[in-house]
Amino acid sequence: MRNKGFTTLRDFGIAAGQSPGPELANRIPSSYLDFFKTLPLFLETERFILVHAGLNPSSENPLEDAETLLWTRDEDYPEQLLRGRKLIHGHTPLPAQEIIRRTADRHTRVINLDGGCVYPHIPGYGNLVAWEPGSGELKIVRNQE
């Protein structure tokens, strides 16, 4: 609930009340929950590893550590873990200028695309970011709310 859970429930028309519990998530329509359950926690190509948050470099198989894939804020990874690929992730908001710098630098091994869309009141943040890795095209759109 501390990560915009109230907003999510409200958007589904679910009143959270004073003391919401995890059972409220079961009131989200099953078609959405079923869809979320089908999504992979990572994508891997010859050139990229794409995850929500990052990897656990101390894990024997970092792509099986769901907790780290979803929640870490680490951005320091040994080359043997990436094996020449770039890690593309989000989860930790960055100012737009830092995202622009990282995507423009062809030597950058870790690219964070989280523009802090939910923080439009903080200078440099409040952006939805998309990056097309083939062309290197970067799209940054201000939060419209």
Structure description:
The protein has 145 residues and is α/β, with parallel strands linked by helices. Helices cover 24% and strands 18% of the residues. It contains five helices and six strands; from the N terminus they run ααββααβαβββ. It has helices at residues 5-11, 30-38, 66-71, 79-82, 96-104; strands at 42-44, 48-51, 86-89, 110-112, 127-132, 137-142.
Note the quaternary state here. Answer: single chain
Question: What string gives the helices and strands in order?
Answer: HHEEHHEHEEE
Q: Which structural class matches the secondary elements? A: alpha/beta
Strand order of the largest sheet: 1-2-3-4
**C-alpha geometry:** globular
Helical run tally: 5
Largest sheet: 4 strands, mixed
Give the N-to-C terminal Cα separation: 21 Å
Keywords:
145 residues; globular; two-stranded antiparallel sheet; single chain; alpha/beta; four-stranded mixed β-sheet; 6 strands; 2 domains; 5 helices
What is shown here, in short?
This protein has helices at residues 5-11, 30-38, 66-71, 79-82, 96-104, and strands spanning 42-44, 48-51, 86-89, 110-112, 127-132, 137-142. With 145 residues, it is an alpha/beta fold. It has 2 domains: 1-39, no CATH class; 41-142, no CATH class.
Give a topology summary.
Blueprint: H1 5-11, H2 30-38, E1 42-44, E2 48-51, H3 66-71, H4 79-82, E3 86-89, H5 96-104, E4 110-112, E5 127-132, E6 137-142
Parallel strand pairs: 2-3, 3-4
Antiparallel strand pairs: 1-2, 5-6
